[in-house]
Amino acid sequence: MPIPSHFTTPIKISAKERALSQIQRWIIDGTLLPGEKIGDAELAEALGVSRTPVREALQILEVQKLVEVYPGNYTKVKSLEKSDILKMYSTLASLHALAAETAASVIVPEQIEQLKQLNAEFSAAIEQGLPFQAMELDEQFHNVIVEAADNEYLASYSASLQVHIRRFKYVFLKQPVQATHVSAEEHQAIIEAMEAGDPERASAMMKQNLLRPMRELYAII
Questions:
Q1: Are residues 73 and 87 in the same domain?
Q2: Signal sequence: where (predicted)?
Q3: What is the rounded radius of gyration, in angstroms, for the C-alpha atoms of the chain?
Q4: Which terminal Cβ of the chain has fewer Cβ within 10 Å, N or C?
Q5: Which domain holds residue 132?
Q6: CA 122 vs CA 44, 88, 99, 136: distances in Å
């Protein structure tokens, strides 16, 4: 029989992917606290899946260094080390500064408009007290610039760091609104530098946008 060429394939997500996504989110937003022991049976019951996909998800999370697995004993959420803030943020700041410097010369108008829309939504999420949504929009903003830079190595290292930085970033975005409005203002400065085709300004503002919260987080944790 002829296979239809025009159809919409439904998006399917496996039990393992669903478990991985939800457990990762719980670790990021603090539902599962640093150092907390977690059991696959309890997680499976909460997620409505069998223990196998939960165990598979925990194995991935162990590789991502979000949990620590002690075979035959227990699994616990990896603790947050204050010193990691300086290591991770400074590395990501350098990566994203390079992305901004590169993107400033090649970014297209459609991507500029996308940055403006994301920053508007980011500001609104902060105003409405939606820290997780604000965090996701902030990541999307940065990822547009990383994508515009078109450097697969930069993108890969950035994605790996983001998994861990999300935990610290969530703490920052839960602070009083006035402390996070500065991020939206810095985003606007980055957009203006992109529009002007100014790689040095774009790079400097991008680095500031990541090093400032690094210092503020280090002071409050």
A1: no
A2: none
A3: 19
A4: N
A5: 82-220
A6: 33, 22, 20, 9
